[in-house]
Write a structure and sequence with these properties.
single chain; alpha/beta; TIM Barrel; 8-stranded parallel beta barrel
């Protein structure tokens, strides 16, 4: 199971996450987020880091030009599209960089297979998060994972939304052939953008037991 730590705003912590063996580090380029990276870190400093961890830029309804600029400035490995981006937009971005398309799961009536239908051929990964119209993730709440367990999606996906150390058992027992990774954020923070590395280290250790 891959681990993505999202909402990073500290250069030193990026290095520590890399040393912990975290697979992906999320950098949020949404100005309404309290973890908006452009207020905290210059792209040149991030770009110069020699890291194995893959850097994921999180964007919400950004333009192609803005995404391209930050991919270059921060040397992003992956782009996560968290807003209302169309399939054709995802296709254009995926011509240049790997794409995670995030989907907001609002209630128990959500049909996951229908939700992703138009995006099957235009992204590399899916991410499923709690949300509804006008809310682009970051709720700190879970959705009903059984909606995914009963789906037939055939692309690697991340689980996101309010995941904490108390969810290790549930994550280990969640079954889907394309369950690829977990995305953690607010439940592992001291304050927005500053991670509690002790909690993350314990989470990693418990998942690998």
């Amino acid at each position: 199971m891959k681990i993505k730590v999202c909402g990073n705003t500290d250069l030193g912590q990026l290095k520590e996450l890399n040393d912990l063996g975290i697979d992906f580090a999320g950098l949020i380029f949404y100005e309404h987020s309290p973890r908006y990276v452009l207020k905290k870190l210059p792209g040149s400093d991030v770009k110069e880091l020699d890291l194995k961890i893959e850097k994921v830029g999180v964007f919400v309804n950004a333009s192609e030009q803005e995404i391209s600029k930050q991919v270059e400035d921060f040397a992003l490995d992956i782009v996560q599209l968290q807003g209302d981006e169309t399939a054709s937009f995802c296709q254009r971005i995926s011509d240049h960089v790997k794409v995670i398309k995030a989907f907001r799961v609002s209630d128990n009536d959500t049909n996951i297979d229908w939700l992703v239908k138009e995006y099957v051929d235009v992204c590399d990964f899916y991410m499923f998060d709690k949300g509804s119209a006008g809310l682009y993730g970051g709720t700190g709440e879970k959705f009903n994972w059984n909606l995914l367990a009963n789906s037939v999606i055939d692309k690697p996906f991340f689980l996101s939304g309010g995941i904490s150390n108390t969810d290790v058992h549930a994550l280990k027992n969640f079954q889907h052939p394309f369950f690829y990774g977990v995305d953690i954020n607010s439940k592992f923070e001291k304050e927005p953008g500053i991670k509690n590395l002790k909690l993350i280290k314990r989470f990693v250790s418990d998942l690998k037991k």
